[in-house]
Amino acid sequence: MAYRAASSPTAPPERDALTVLVGRGRARALRAVQGSATTTELARRLGVGKSTASEHAAALRAASLVTTHRTGRTVRHTTTDLGHRLLAATPVGS
Known about the structure:
Layout: H1 17-22, H2 24-33, E1 36-38, H3 39-46, H4 50-62, E2 66-71, E3 74-79, H5 81-89
Antiparallel strand pairs: 1-3, 2-3
């Protein structure tokens, strides 16, 4: 049985390595945290609702890519060292 290549070997990749690893939404969310962001800021940066931003943050937290701290009604997400290293190793378009 033979398989044909989906694209030519010289074609640019459609997705960067981070997107392949964690998915488009999570990759966008990690990049949008940009060091630190509240859930509201993250939602605004991604153009999504707060609940969706919160779900992305929870998944990134579970993967140890961000930490989350609550102060009163404000929830702030901060990129971990692992998250920073992953972002540095996988620039957009890599």
